[in-house]
């Protein structure tokens, strides 16, 4: 049987057991499990990696537990601005959208942009117009409403501060979702989706939808999806940096991931908090984060699934 694997994340940050009720934790774990299993069985059936990451990110976008799609946080003006990207390692084809509103599954819009637009990146109303042209699903504002996120926004909407995701007692969580996959034909792909920052202003765009910063895939090296404080990840061109460290310096996937997250991101001029998931074309998987926890899961061909939320040693390497 050819090697194949799926890896997912649902955000990183100050994620500790005391932040959640048992019911919420179960919901988070169940959704991660659903996403991993959906991806695994699609890959087992011979589905292409790019199709799998698109489907898996849709599963996460449809859940209120993550800051993407249905669970997106509120901007300063009380709306939701969504962004997503997808990249196919087989041909370096990519699509991305940012600053869009009411799109049920931003990853679907990113996929349509990749396949139909002749462009890579579309923004705002233009991206929405393009999505309607290709029958991308839209939802009313009520679909995206979450009382907890609304209450968090109301607390700070009159200030100049923002929060990186919904928080409790000043805990920080970066709720971006993402997936990377290796299919039976040896192709890799990556997809990432986010609702950005609570109370963000001025049309701020994070790293998630920017090819090379939050999302990257190349059959010559690996596929990467990042989550964290977007500005440092943008400045470090983080996802592409993993690929470059492998291609030009000969580092392994694990070495490159650990260097970026645990050394480069810790440098004084970056101070980057977050993590990433990555996979190479031989089926090696890397899950690296410098925060207390990270929602994550994976399953390789012939193995059982692994789901974890908290400290690094909760899940086998």
Automatic annotation (TrEMBL):
Site positions (Cleavage): 175-176
Swiss-Prot/TrEMBL keywords: Autocatalytic cleavage, Hydrolase, Protease
A GO molecular-function annotation: peptidase activity
Pfam families, per the entry: Asparaginase_2
Any GO BP: proteolysis
Chain sites annotated for binding substrate: 204-207, 227-230
Catalytic site: 176
Protein name (record): Isoaspartyl peptidase
């Amino acid at each position: 049987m050819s090697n194949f694997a799926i890896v997912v994340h649902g955000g990183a940050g100050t994620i500790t057991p005391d932040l959640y009720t048992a019911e919420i934790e179960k919901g988070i774990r169940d959704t991660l499990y659903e996403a991993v299993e959906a991806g695994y069985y699609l890959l087992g059936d011979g589905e292409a990696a790019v199709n799998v990451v698109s489907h898996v990110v849709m599963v996460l976008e449809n859940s209120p537990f993550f800051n993407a799609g249905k669970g997106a946080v509120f901007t300063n003006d009380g709306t939701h601005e969504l962004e997503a990207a997808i990249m196919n390692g087989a041909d370096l084809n990519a699509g991305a959208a940012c600053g869009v509103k009411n799109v049920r599954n931003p990853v679907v819009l990113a996929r349509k942009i990749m396949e139909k637009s002749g462009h890579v990146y579309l923004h705002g109303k233009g991206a929405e117009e393009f999505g309607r042209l290709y029958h991308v699903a839209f939802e009313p504002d009520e679909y995206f409403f979450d009382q907890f996120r609304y209450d968090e926004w109301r607390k700070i909407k009159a200030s100049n501060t923002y929060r990186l995701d919904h928080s409790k007692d000043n805990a920080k969580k970066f709720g971006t979702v993402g997936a990377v996959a290796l299919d039976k034909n040896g192709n890799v792909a990556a997809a990432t989706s986010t609702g950005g920052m609570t109370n963000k202003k001025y049309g701020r765009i994070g790293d998630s939808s920017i090819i090379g910063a939050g999302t990257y895939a190349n059959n010559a090296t690996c596929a990467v999806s990042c989550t964290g404080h977007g500005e440092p990840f943008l400045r470090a061109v983080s996802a592409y940096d993993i690929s470059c460290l492998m291609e030009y310096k000969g580092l392994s996937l694990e070495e490159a991931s650990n260097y970026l997250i645990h050394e480069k991101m810790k440098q004084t001029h970056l101070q980057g908090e977050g993590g990433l998931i990555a996979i190479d074309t031989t089926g090696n998987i890397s899950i690296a984060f410098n925060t207390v926890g990270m929602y994550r899961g994976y399953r390789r061909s012939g193995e059982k699934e692994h789901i974890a939320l908290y400290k690094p040693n909760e899940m086998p390497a």
